[in-house]
Amino acid sequence: MSWETKNYSILLVEDNKLNQTVVKFTLKRYGYNIDVANNGIEAVEMYKEGTYDFILMDVMMPEMDGLEATKIIRDQEEGDERIPIIALTADIMVANEEKCLENGMDAHLSKPFDVDHLFKVLTELDL
């Protein structure tokens, strides 16, 4: 099943309300269900309570950033079960992308992201 036919359940972790609105509007057009966490603390709690196909995780947030939230989520995963976490960041530096991957994220998207680039990442992650 691919992103073209699947009704994904997505956890969007983003502290900026405008960015939340844009991402939700863009992805809901494809029939995806999107829950929003405003920071890393909310993301960890929602991950525990929900069932998501993947997480779109902002890196820079108040309260708890995306890197710390990712580490906590990875520590809570059981067995071979690993939820794909895609970093969202305004920082396009290669070093930042490497930092995200080193901290347990599976892919990286620069904000604002192009939906076709997201679909390419989903394909690369075999989702």
TrEMBL record:
Domain of life: Bacteria
Pfam families: Response_reg
Domain Response regulatory: 9-126
Record-listed 4-aspartylphosphate modification sites: D58
Keywords for this protein: Phosphoprotein, Two-component regulatory system
PANTHER family: HYBRID SIGNAL TRANSDUCTION HISTIDINE KINASE J
UniProt protein name: Response regulator
Organism name: Marinifilum caeruleilacunae
Lineage, highest ranks first: Bacteria, Pseudomonadati, Bacteroidota, Bacteroidia, Marinilabiliales
